[in-house]
Design goal:
The structure is a single chain. It is built from seven helices and 14 strands. By secondary structure, the protein is an alpha+beta fold. It has a five-stranded mixed beta sheet, with no helix packed on it. Strands 6-12-11-8-9 form a five-stranded mixed beta sheet, with helices on one face. A two-stranded antiparallel ribbon has the order 1-2. Helix 1 runs antiparallel to helix 2, helix 4 packs across helix 7 and helix 5 crosses helix 7. It is elongated and about 95 Å long. It binds dinuclear copper ion (CUA). Dinuclear copper ion (CUA) binds next to loops.
């Protein structure tokens, strides 16, 4: 049975399932490991919690005994207890834990073997630029969503475009800083299919807490299908209404920041929207991708995500026809 976890800062509206996916079902917990590194980290955590609990009980037990015992103890015995329990015992325990922790490091830091799937993720205030590569090494850009095939190592190249961010998918493994002007590498090896969340783990400004991304781990064939679709220009419905909806997107100025491959929109300031309709979430992992949420996002951008760089298009609230055309157009981008 899957546990549902309440997520901080997410309104109850997010419990609604959509497209077979419920935001609250997607795990963001280190204690729900779905990758090799995360399993080791969870194991280390349980050893430490177990050990700490035992030692805590021992210490508290001795303290209670010391308070209530009326018995006199010879000085030599108490001195042995102080040296043994206060110096030797912690040294042995901490050395053991250190050795165990260090023994995990080589596995956690082993680079992915040559030929592994490579994904470049860049932290941007406050969203994620995600690039896959086709057979010729040309990037295939998407945003705020990372899809992975299960049971293979994946090499992440991590960059930052403005300030320091940190890339963390808690159910898959450890975190890695993203630094401007430098590539950091992280290998993750998912071993369980499912929906997860990644977060930014380094304070990076106003909307830091709302800088998330969805992570979908699927079998190899599903992943390959998805990637092949992402590599195509957006599917342009041929009918006239689709063309006029696209015209709204361009006329309203969305193309000043966004790319939709196959159209005149080619800016890289904001997220690539070429296959927007296939994404799980909007606003970098903060709202489910539904027409209602998208309308709200466009009109009340700053109320949904304070600090966001995208301007709120409040004027569209007075033009429901344009707004619904825009929303229908974006949701149709498969
Ligand atoms: Cu990006 Cu915190």
């Amino acid at each position: 049975m899957r546990r549902t976890r309440p997520l901080l800062g997410v309104s109850t509206a997010m419990t609604v399932g959509f497209r077979g996916f419920s935001v609250n079902e997607a795990s963001q917990s280190v204690l729900d490991p779905a990758g090799l590194a995360a399993r080791q980290i969870a194991e280390l955590f349980y050893w430490m919690v177990g050990g700490a609990t035992l030692i805590w009980m021992l210490v508290i037990g001795l303290a209670v005994y010391a308070i209530f015992s009326r018995k006199a103890h010879p000085v030599l015995t108490t001195r042995k207890l102080v040296i043994g329990g206060g110096a030797i015992f912690p040294t042995v325990v901490l050395t053991g834990l250190l050795a165990y922790g260090l023994s995990l490091m080589p596995d956690l830091h082993r680079p992915a073997p040559a030929g592994s799937l490579k994904i470049r993720v860049s932290g941007v205030r406050w969203w994620w630029r995600v690039e896959y590569f086709d057979g010729d090494g040309n990037p295939i850009e998407t945003a705020n969503e990372v899809r992975l095939p299960v049971d293979q190592p994946i090499a992440f190249e991590l960059l930052a475009e403005d300030v320091i961010h940190s890339f963390w998918i808690p159910p898959l493994g450890g975190k890695m800083d993203m630094l401007p002007g430098r590539s950091n590498w992280l290998t993750l090896h998912p071993d369980r299919q499912g929906d997860y969340f990644g977060v930014c783990a380094e304070y990076c400004g106003t909307a830091h807490a709302q800088m998330r991304f969805s992570v979908v781990v699927s079998d190899e064939a599903t992943f390959a299908d998805w990637l092949a679709t992402q590599g195509l220009a957006s599917r342009r419905a041929g009918d006239r209404s689709a063309a006029s909806r696209e015209e709204v997107f361009l006329r309203r100025g969305c193309s000043a920041c966004h790319t939709i491959r196959g159209t005149a929109a080619k800016s890289r300031v904001g997220p690539d929207l070429t296959h927007f309709g296939t994404r799980r979430t909007i606003g970098a992992g903060i709202l489910p991708n539904t027409a209602n949420h998208l309308s709200r996002w466009i009109v009340e951008t700053h109320r949904v995500k304070p600090g966001v760089e995208m301007p709120s298009f409040r004027t569209l609230a007075n033009d429901p026809e344009d707004l619904s055309a825009l929303v229908a157009y974006l949701e149709s981008l498969q």
